[in-house]
Amino acid sequence: MDQQKSYIYRQSKDRAAKRQRTEPVGVDMSFELRKRAYRAAWAQQEDQFDSLVKALHDPVLQDITQDICNTVENATLPAALIVTGSSGASNDVLFEQLRATVLAENTASCFVSLTASDAPNLKTLLKNLIRKATNETTGFDDEGDAQPEVASQRRLLNYDLQILHDWIKSRPQNSVIISFQDSEAFDAGILTDTLALLKSWLDRISFKLVFGIATSLDLFQDRLPKTALRNESVTAEKSTVRLGPTLVADFMQRQHDHMQSVHDFKQALKYAYMSHFYADPLSVFLCEGLSREEISPEHFEVVRHVPSFRKHIEALLKANDVATARDLLDSDDALLAAINAQIIAGRRQTVWTMGACSVIKAIRSAIPNREAVPFSALYTRTLSGTLQSSALMRETLLYARKADSTALIDLLTKVADTLIVMPPSSIDVSPDDFSDLQEELEALLDSHSGPLPLQSGSADGSSSQPNSTRVATSKKKQPAQSEAQVKYNSILSRFHDLLADYFTKALCPLSAVFLSEVLFYDLKSPHRDVFTPKPRVAVERALSAPHDYLGCQCCSTKEGGLSSTQPATAILYQLYLESGALINAFDLWSAFRAMIGEREKDERSAMALFFQSLAELKYLGMEHVALTDDNVSEGVVGSGVDDFEQHGAFVLVEPFGRLVDVVICAGIRTTDNLWPESACCSKGDRERLRCTMTVTSSS
């Protein structure tokens, strides 16, 4: 069967002894519900993601659109250069938004996007330009094929710009905007000829150009002649499921190491949503309008075994609420009601947590001589439970305790604005508390006639200076604080206490959220395997223990080690691992021949397997074949191994020892016409290089 090109499956006439169960049972019954919930959740998240990207692009798009649409007609080709970076996927989104914006601002324009694949030569570029501009398929592929003209009876070649000119005259379009999205991928000669041709048609067709540049303006301009650069114009919180701290940290680390594009980040986020809804049966509880009949009893049993449920039951028992704990353990209806209520409460708690992170970020940005902390770092540290007792929090609260009156007004405004948009929650922190402090502080500043801003100080009249300074000036009498200073210290102290209480209640770690397994997705292993794969480990393990992957009966009883029934490549790889740093090819062949001698009696077949396995290992990068003066001692094979001479391995090297090719020659040594053409060396060189192959370990 292994040698057949195809195999026809013939169904057995015997009826199965037992009918197969085709309907899903248990937790599999909720797959369609989870699929529906995933689509709804991802559609909402994708809209937020796209709107965010659009908001980031809008200012740039408006500037580019105004520059393109308001260009004054003159004798030069108007061009806009956009430095987009190396991300091709995000550039697709940017140019698509640019096209929509330009057409919305100027309906009389025609927008054409060209890529390097559209321009292998000048004629093909013009064909694609005309076809995309007219939005018609010509149906002519050959260069000599003619295409009927729009406005006259003459037949024109399908790359003649006269077709585009006649098409524009018959329609309201008055200009053609051409975008070269990956301009650096275009051939410089083709691009130069295109610019010259478009320049010659500028008096009849209004062309405007947009170039996307991945590197820099200088490198792009170096590829074009100076004549093409003259007079150039250059213009350049609602979520169904959230990511856990481990996965977010992995996202940020991968972004830092590899500079992923927005499109790649979006795909990784989408994969996280798919993994959560498709692989986790508990995600069915995120469906809107879920009824009791749609959930199987197995779902409730799974909920009762998750760690957050056990912690919740322990908390109820510590509070002597035994009746509620008993209902959750025995009644599925009571558990479903508790799940629905806790999912709503958990989402609100998460929003409060993110709001507190925003407040911390705002306070940290106001601290002088301190580097700003990214929101993602605050988010991951909060959910992991390490932020509350960190030095960062102590420094933040200390700054709030020592802030002057100007900084305090800004902090009160930011905290109040953040709390106003927070959803109702069990956290008894009101924005009115901070608003009242702000009004009291503003009234104090209005009535204060002394110098501003007011500085922090101790209410008992002591100074806030370091201890060493206090000892040096302890005998000096401190001046009494003014009434305004005392009131300001009182306001500052109350603000500090309110802020500390707010952070204590709002910064909730992931371990304290009931049903966090449903609300958060925090598994790193699927993402690490998909987006940062490490195939070498898997390949090495497969070669070292092939029976774990093949599942064959001949190797299943072996407790590791070599076996003649294993694949030839696996045998050679294990022999390679058992050898030293330098391996002589003949010694390796002898060990290989002795190992597979039981199943391959023919020595020629065994040698073919040896060379095939060696080539496969070299292709995988497991072995490095080289010839240098330092690590190779030539070993000419004696007359006792005729087959090895007839199937010699010749290594062709350059003068400095760099490997060029490994040629496996299956001919007779004395017959020159059987040598392969790739062995480009003289007969004397062949004799000298014959059988001089050494395999060095890649460790």
TrEMBL record:
Annotated GO CC locations: DNA replication preinitiation complex; nuclear origin of replication recognition complex; nuclear pre-replicative complex
**Domain Origin recognition complex subunit 3 N-terminal: start-end pairs:** 25-231
Which subcellular locations apply to this protein? Answer: Nucleus
Its family remark reads: Belongs to the ORC3 family.
DNA-binding keyword on record? yes
The record lists the organism as: Carpinus fangiana
What domain of life does the native source organism fall in? Eukaryota
Domain called Origin recognition complex subunit 3 winged helix C-terminal: residue spans:
536-602
Q: What is the lineage of its organism?
A: Eukaryota, Viridiplantae, Streptophyta, Embryophyta, Tracheophyta
Q: Which InterPro entries match?
A: ORC3, ORC3_N, ORC_WH_C
Q: Where is the composition biased (Polar residues)?
A: 455-472
Q: What is this protein called?
A: Uncharacterized protein
Give the matching Pfam families. ORC3_N, WHD_ORC
